[in-house]
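Subject: sequence -> structure tokens, single chain

Hey, anyone have a minute? Need the predicted structure for the following. Not urgent.
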Amino acid sequence: MNDMGQIGAQSAEEVSDALPHSIEAEQQLLGAILTNDRVFDRVASILKADHFYDPVHGRIFEIAASRFAKNALVSPVTLGAFLEDDPGLRELGGPAYLARLAGAAISTFAAADYAQLIHDMYMRRQLMNLGRDISERARRVEADSEPKDQIVQAEQALYAMGEQGQASKGFTSFLRAVTEAVNVANAAYQRDGGLAGISTGLDDLDKKLGGLHRSDLLILAGRPSMGKTSLATNIAFNVAKAYKKGILPDGTEGAVNGGVVGFYSLEMSSEQLAARVLSEASEVPSEQIRRGDMTEAEFRRFVEAAKTLESCPLYIDDTPALPISQLAARARRLKRTHGLDVLFVDYLQLVRPASAKDSRVNEVSEITQGLKAIAKELNIPVVALSQLSRQVENREDKRPQLSDLRESGSIEQDADAVMFVYREEYYKEREKPSDDNLEAMAKWQETMERCHGKAEVILGKQRHGPIGTVELSFEGRFTRFGNLIKPWQNGVDSF
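Reply:
Had a minute. Here:
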């Protein structure tokens, strides 16, 4: 080892010789930064100050970065003024050490490789530290620390390291936030003023929502038999069916259309959910599929639909009563192994909190906060279904509103958008008058014709746009929602 390596190694020995590091790589890269401004631009996206093994090297890099940010000169002389009283640098020879670093500089072209080596060594040290932490926590037997919770914590830490290369994201500069916002707007503009988010496959809903936006929590609520699960499966199928992989604007590989879908079905089994999707795709009533009562043509359509769906990236987890921590862990695992662009949870009230609370309102609050945290951590839209309270049934106008959400405070607060599914036809069917009341029967038939095969999605809250109502078609036989044909389109009546 040369003199530079020996000097650096002496300062590092106090930490640990067993940890992976390369003092010479750090020295030579810092030397290049001190002698060539362009080197910093090449490595700034790879390295941070805490990636350096030697703390003195980290401080040198940090001061150099702040000088570059101000377009100020970076050299052994200018940095020496800032580090003159640094005790660590004094041990290495004071400002003269900076001059020796400059003398050991590598070429500009090798800078990125050296930076990657330093970053990789840092990641190895982080993995070793995480392993020790896991071992220490497992060794301690505590009443409030279950092994399954420790597994979730370890997986979360590993995922964070894999995605960001560090435990937490920290603050983001406004410039970076603005740049990301411009990129989203540009992507929408490139689609001829289309969607900033992922398309639901329902045109009018897309226009109102702008698609499903990343990091958003969307609540889809409704009374029983309104079709909230059907609408969720329809959207999930549309997203998975449209999935196309390609190169994203930032140069990474991902979904350029549609997306990989994760679906937590806490109420229905995966087979029941698959039957619903197959019913929609094959246009065979779901009850016929269950009974096996199909014509040859219907069975042929059913088989063809099943073959098409084999390649759809739609993943279903039907484990009942999942705790929110396990739900998050499984979502991270799915994203790491297969990718994940949209997550559905059917339904919110069946998710368990991490621990029992003193009230159901507090439990639901923990769940909604957990779902929002998943959306932000994985940078995906999360669509969670929710039940409505019975007070809807006591009103003459049964269109739901925000106050009808069960345990509504936390749901309304944490959600970026709240949508209600409402089918007037369902209620009107149950108001059929007696056959001998001809006037009432005629009025009822007129109402039924008007609302037959129609549904409404009411946007009660939306952080990124206006609230309002979207009309959709609904085919009960196939449990399928679709785009509603308007009277002025193609000269036909609305369905």
